[in-house]
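Practice problem: Cytochrome oxidase maturation protein, cbb3-type
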Amino acid sequence: MPALYVMIPAALLLVGVAIYIFFWAVDSGQYEDLDGPAHSVLFDDQDPNHLAAVDEANGPEQPPKEPPHA
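Answer key — structure tokens:
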């Protein structure tokens, strides 16, 4: 029973600290942009004029085919 006299105030103190930290995080803007970091992974930070990825996707260059001679 004497342990309850220590544990209940300690638990209430921990809950109070957790609530204080939560409200501090909300007020300081920690939860303002939840989707930004998730969507930023989808976009490249590279130069859009860089064509190495386009060339790689198209495969190696092949010489133009000549029409058959008649």
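Discussion: The chain has a mean pLDDT of 78. Students who identified this feature from the tokens alone can consider the problem solved.
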